[in-house]
Write a structure and sequence with these properties.
With about 425 residues, the chain is an alpha/beta fold. The protein contains 14 helices and 15 strands. Helix 13 links the parallel strand 14 and strand 15 (about 390-395).
Length: about 425
């Protein structure tokens, strides 16, 4: 195999690939377009053409690649082997290759914790360094050109963007030492509460491994059941309520809940539906009912995500807040949605000590629900919440969120990444 030191500059090969799978390979001034289905497929097409060129000239060739991850010089051999070109410095992208909307969704690193003072006296065991290696080996890169090189057998470390994504996955994969409840709120209808509830539950269910419930806590035609998969029955929380004592008893089993909740087969969480087909007066439940349902949910689930109604004076709504460990303000770029969420945070800050803590630690998730909204509109709302909430995440427009059942896998890759960042922000408050 030709060494890197003897690889000539001819033929000159430059390659450019884009997020949408398009790009081109230029060989000695002749451009060859690439039309692939994804960024990874475009990279594979570049390597295939470079390998064909190397085979034709009978030696390794240098390839200058440019992608959303940055510029990476490679050496490609006739046998298909690929390695970094050590004679030219790689230039990774200064920031992850995200759109303006996605950059707003990126979560800043947590500040380093203050060092804990070492006690003046230590035992011999505490002073001795363990022989057991506590370091966890970092997995090689899986994305971008780094991932491509890793798949060819080279051990290439991940980019900072990939490390950030792995940290977010770890955050939403955690289990806590007791059940946790997330309340998704906004006093205006259509503010994206149901999509936010559904997709947060999907994230925690997919990565944390079951034990997640999405609960439609709405007196007035809650639509969580309309946006999620129905199980082999049509049960709602009205069917569960008469069974609370039995389900809280010592003989009840987790499988008993299957007749009252609707399992989401692809996203691995359950849904407790309201009954929007009847008038609110026919399905009115009380604060005591909320306590009873929450007791069942906390017994059988590690995480409960509650989709709320719009009436902030309803005892049902207020009792939900009393049970919440984390508050999520769902809003779109519409001014009335954003204002309603902000007023809600301000009101909760004055309600009582528990509500004030929730307001101070709230996460605002700003969804670009309107296709005509611009990245500037999204950032304007997000910026307004940065002085009100602990963290702010933004979600780009995605047709898969507009109508019908909500499934995480149906979202575009940038939207999935934005929701992952939002879920990690929520997890940090649990």
């Amino acid at each position: 195999m030709t060494t890197t030191d003897t690889v000539p500059c001819w033929p000159k090969i430059d390659a450019v690939v884009r997020n949408d799978g398009t790009g081109y390979v230029t060989i000695n001034g002749t451009s060859h377009p690439i039309e692939a289905g994804s960024l990874d497929e475009a990279r594979a097409a570049v390597l295939a053409r470079a390998t064909a060129t190397a085979t034709k000239v009978g030696r390794a060739v240098r390839v200058a690649t440019t992608s959303p991850d940055g510029a990476f010089p490679l050496i490609v051999h006739p046998d298909g082997a690929v390695m970094p070109d050590p004679s030219i410095e790689a230039r990774p992208a200064a920031t992850p290759s995200l759109s303006v909307v996605e950059e707003a969704a990126a979560v800043p690193a947590e500040p380093a914790a203050a060092p804990v003072p070492t006690p003046p006296s230590r035992t011999r065991r505490a002073a001795r360094q363990s022989f057991l290696d506590q370091q966890i080996a970092e997995e090689p890169a899986t994305a971008g050109w780094r991932g491509t090189l890793a798949r060819f057998g080279l051990r290439v470390s991940p980019s900072e963007a990939e490390r950030a994504q792995r940290a977010d996955v770890q955050a939403v994969s955690q289990h806590w030492h007791g059940p946790r409840t997330i309340a998704v709120v906004n006093g205006k209808g259509g503010a994206s509460k149901t999509p936010t509830t559904t997709l947060l539950a999907a994230l925690f269910g997919r990565h944390g491994g079951a034990g997640v419930l999405a609960w439609d806590n709405n007196q007035t035609r809650g639509t969580l059941g309309w946006r999620t998969e129905q199980g082999p029955h049509d049960a709602t929380l009205l069917d569960l309520l008469p069974q609370v004592d039995r389900l809280l008893g010592t003989t009840a089993q987790v499988a008993d809940l299957a007749r009252y909740v609707h399992h989401q087969t692809s996203d691995k969480y359950d849904v407790l539906r309201s009954k929007p087909a009847v008038l609110a007066s026919e399905q009115r439940i009380t604060a005591d009912d909320v306590d009873a349902i929450h007791a069942v949910a906390a017994k059988y689930y590690r995480l409960v995500v509650i989709d709320s109604g719009n009436d902030e004076t309803d005892p049902l709504w207020l009792r939900m807040v009393d049970h919440a460990d984390q508050l999520v303000i769902a809003t779109t770029t519409r001014a009335d949605h954003a204002e309603a969420g902000a007023l809600l945070l301000e009101a909760l800050a004055e309600r009582d000590e528990h509500s004030a803590r929730l307001a101070a630690g709230a996460v605002a998730i700003v969804s670009q629900a309107d296709k005509t909204a611009s990245a500037t509109d999204v950032e304007h709302v997000a910026d307004g919440y940065r002085n009100l909430a602990r963290e702010v995440a933004t979600i780009p427009f995605d047709e898969a969120m507009v109508d019908g059942h909500l499934r995480f896998a149906a979202l575009r890759t940038p939207t999935q990444r934005a929701w992952l960042a939002a879920g990690a922000a929520v997890a940090r408050g649990l």
